[in-house]
Amino acid sequence: MEPFSAAYEQRIEAMMDYLAAIMDVGGNVPMFGDADDGYLVRLDPDPGFAPQRSALGLGALLFRRGDFKLKAGALDERARWLLGSAAVAQYDALSAEATRLPVRQSFPEGGYHVLGADLGTPAEIRAVVDAGPLGYTTIAAHGHADALSFTLSVGGREFLVDPGTYAYHTQKRWREYFRGTGAHNTVRIDGLDQSEQGGNFMWVKHARAGCGLWLSSSEKDTFEGWHDGYLRLADPVKHRRLLALDKRARRLLVEDSLTMAEEHEVELLFHCAEDCRVDAVAQGYLIERDGITLELALPPEGTAEIYRGSVSPLYGWISRGFDRRRPTSTLVWRAKLSSPALLRTQITIK
After folding, report:
1. What DSSP letter does each residue of 164-218 carry, written as one string?
2. Which residue from 24, 41, 42, 107 has the highest number of Cβ atoms inside 10 Å of its Cβ?
3. What whole-number distance in Å separates Cα of residue 71 and Cα of residue 81?
4. Backbone phi, psi, residue 160, to 5°
């Protein structure tokens, strides 16, 4: 059998680079788009099997990448099946520090960008923002209407999350919710999705998204992006979003710029991990877990409400696996705005 080409191997290694970049120090990966937990052959009976870490363990061996080993942790049973009995000794001999490469944070073709501070340490802040295409091919089958949404983890603990998929072919209301804009950490206009759904695996109108600015330094990471999903409205709305992480102050600024002429209902959405406690305080909201606190200061123009396991309206749910859901907390800020607006949200990490 002929070996794979060098170009093929380079693309596989690039895929591993992306996976390592979006994985936080605790091994968590954002649940962007559809997922169904399906395996043809898993090769590892451990109930705690983590497919992303498993893939990085294989990548560490195949490409001699110690930085992948740091993310993967211990080599799992699947690697032993695929690479043979010598894999464990080869993995143990791989130096994690000697083969570390600079962390890549921007993936413009896919549309993902990683803002971070103290990456790879217990103090890590990692925000992953989505400004990529809706989905694959003309129907964008497995895409979600999540343009300019982001996730946020601190110290390997998830705080702001993508709630997942939950259902595919059944439970239409839930399928539409989990893939809709309202289930993502972005802005929703007039209760509408950024893109229009045409079935369980079809989008008939696609929001286009892109990145206009990406800067990264030792002091600050900055992303600015846009999408055109609401230009289809009778009164078109253009959404631009800026995220700026001040690494010294450990503060994330989120600025949403909305250009419109008439009045629209605007919602800012923040979906929290299920282990978070969310409380209203005089200065805004606190999101707490495991001794870490996020202070949210929301725009003064509107009102906010916390939902947990709500079915009317549908808010406050997370799905960690196919056909499984559980309550979580969703913070929804609302306002009726009738002129161009700049909405500032400040997230301070304590």
Report:
1. ----SSS-HHHHHHHHSGGGSSSEEETTB-SSEEEETTEEEE---EEEEEEEE-S
2. 24
3. 20
4. -100, 125
Q: What pLDDT was estimated at residue 3?
A: 86
Mean pLDDT, all residues of the chain: 94
User: How much is the pLDDT for 104?
Assistant: 87
Sign of the torsion angle spanned by Cα atoms 249, 254, 257, 263: negative
Q: Tokens 């120090």 label which residue? A: 25
Buried (b) or exposed (e) across 95-106, using 16+ Cβ within 10 A? eeeebeeeeebb
Cα 281 to Cα 295: distance, rounded to the nearest angstrom: 9
| Distance (Å, whole) CA 76 – CA 44 | 7
In the three-class reduction of DSSP (H, G, I as helix; E, B as strand; rest coil), residue 337 is classed as: strand
Query: Residue 155 in contact with residue 143, Cβ under 8 Å?
Result: no
Question: How big is the CA angle at 233 (ends 231 and 234), to the nearest 5 degrees?
Answer: 120
Q: What are phi and psi of 146, to 5 degrees?
A: -125, 25
3-state secondary structure of 295: strand
Residues 2, 41 contacting (CB under 8 angstroms): no
Q: Which of 104, 101, 111, 113 is nearest to 135 (CA)?
A: 111
Domain boundaries, the chain: 6-93, 106-349
CATH number at 106-349 = 2.70.98.70
* Token pair 């740091």: residue: 70
Query: pTM here?
Result: 0.95
CA distance 344 to 333: 12
Per-position DSSP letters for 108-139, written without gaps between them: TTTTEEEEEESTTSTT-EEEEEE-S-SSSTTT
Task: For the chain, count helices (H), then strands (E).
Answer: 6, 23
- The two structure tokens encoding residue 343: 């909405």
Position 102 scores a pLDDT of 72
- Could you give the CA distance from residue 271 to residue 162 in angstroms, rounded to a whole number? 7
Residue type at 157? R
